[in-house]
Write a structure and sequence with these properties.
Blueprint: H1 2-18, H2 21-32, H3 36-52, H4 54-64, H5 66-85, H6 90-104, H7 107-118, H8 121-135, H9 137-141, H10 144-176, H11 188-199, H12 202-205, H13 207-234, H14 238-266, H15 270-289, H16 295-308, H17 311-320, H18 328-359, H19 364-386, H20 392-396
Helix pairs in contact: 1-5, 1-7, 1-8, 1-10, 2-10, 2-13, 3-6, 3-18, 4-18, 5-6, 5-7, 5-10, 7-8, 7-18, 8-14, 8-17, 10-14, 13-14, 13-16, 13-17, 13-18, 13-19, 14-16, 15-16, 15-17, 15-19, 17-18, 18-19
């Protein structure tokens, strides 16, 4: 239990660092002279580094152990926070974001490995839902509390404070990891043979396109564009739109708890993934069609997108049914690679689309409409593919 508590705290910090741009973007853009496209690239750099690290981290988790891997990751994360907060230029800010993404890469996966080895498929879905729901505290911290830190200490001071907190947790995990059992030694060729064996599992193939898009939708909206959209289109102040971002997180946490419990009862997360995906398509589609809608329905659509975000944890639970014993780390990190590489692509793409739409003279609201439209179309297309995936209940029979 103590192991999971420490890992949940680590995931809280990962959730925090992946979502800071939504609040810090206005001040940081003014300080560093960043454009909308630059903001998309900056946030995308976090997810690019995070995703590219997933495959080797899968081997690390299976071989070195989840606690040691998480402790090392937190140390790198702390360094990234310091570099990013002290960045004198966009180039150094890119480096800081890359270090943050690299350091956060093993944190959630470490908890997945612990739970996959400890629980059955049904109990895994429930436990995973609880872990993600509680760890969403990091998203809450990256909303109104981060906006307050930004007002009191500036965006650089806020990053420095969180870097110090991260370094302290890295030390706690390092002490907890003493005596942790290590996996059997593997040669490099054998390790990558295991990765190829995971990739040959046909049951995962239908999950991968949806995995590529599902996190990118909610993390692009919640992580970057919701704050600027509410600020520029609806004139909300940072603390006000920070409250909306916090409401999105509460919706996400509630969905993870609800669907984790329901999935454990039914024995399959697939029906709920399909349901929340339809909700995500509808909410992003509505904002695409009427980005200048009244404030209340706009906030309702954003909260619906937060609720849709439970799809991420459910996809991991779906894939868990097909991971071979002893390869839980590699299986989970393969899905996570697609999740976060797709997020990096979508965040960069939405930044480019927003900048291009503004240059084309669509107006502020219209430019955000193009952003939401891109996300809605991508989610709809991959949801149609996901519906063809194997149901874990059928696989178990």
């Amino acid at each position: 239990m103590r192991t999971l508590v420490l890992l949940i705290l680590a995931i809280v910090l990962s959730q925090f660092f992946r979502s800071t741009m939504a609040v810090l973007a206005p001040d940081m853009a003014a300080d560093l002279g960043a454009t909308a496209a630059d903001l998309g690239r900056l946030s995308g750099m976090w997810f690019l580094a995070f995703s590219l690290a997933q495959i080797p981290i899968g081997v690390l988790l299976d071989r070195w152990g989840p606690l040691r891997s998480a402790s090392l990751g937190l140390a790198v994360t702390a360094a990234g926070a310091v570099v990013f907060g002290a960045a004198p230029s966009l180039e150094i800010a890119y480096l800081g974001q890359a270090l943050l993404g690299l350091g956060c890469a093993p944190l959630y996966m470490a908890s997945v490995v612990v739970m996959a080895r400890r629980y059955s498929l049904e109990r895994f879905a429930l436990a995973n839902g609880y872990v993600i729901a509680v760890s969403n505290l990091g998203l809450v911290l990256s909303a109104t509390p981060l906006a307050a830190l930004d007002l009191w200490f500036g965006w650089r001071g806020a990053m420095g404070i969180m870097g110090a907190v991260t370094a302290m947790l890295a030390l706690f995990l390092a002490f907890a990891a003493r005596g942790e059992k290590m996996g059997a030694p593997e040669s490099l060729s054998r390790a990558f043979a295991g990765i190829l064996a995971i990739m040959r599992l046909r049951a995962l193939w239908w999950l991968l396109p949806f995995s590529f898009v599902c996190s990118g939708v909610v993390l692009s909206v919640r992580g970057i564009w919701a704050g600027p959209y509410l600020y520029e289109v609806h004139g909300m102040a940072p603390i006000e739109y920070g409250d909306v971002l916090a409401a999105m997180v509460i919706a996400l946490a509630a969905a993870n708890l609800l669907f984790g419990w329901m999935s454990s009862r039914l024995g399959s997360p697939k029906p709920y993934i399909a349901g929340v995906a339809v909700l995500g398509v509808a909410a992003t589609g509505a904002l695409a069609g009427a980005p200048d809608m009244a404030l209340a329905p706009a906030i309702a659509c954003l909260i619906a997108i937060g609720f849709y975000g439970a799809a991420y944890g459910l996809v991991i639970a779906h894939g868990r049914a097909f991971f071979p014993e002893g390869m839980e780390g590699r299986g989970a990190t393969l899905l996570n690679f697609f999740n976060f590489f797709g997020t990096a692509v979508l965040q960069v793409a939405t930044g480019e689309v927003l900048a291009g739409a503004r240059d084309a003279g669509t107006g502020t609201a219209g430019a955000y409409g193009w952003v939401f439209g891109l996300l809605s179309v991508a989610l709809l297309a991959t949801t149609m593919l996901y519906l063809k995936s194997a149901d874990p209940r059928a696989s178990a029979r």
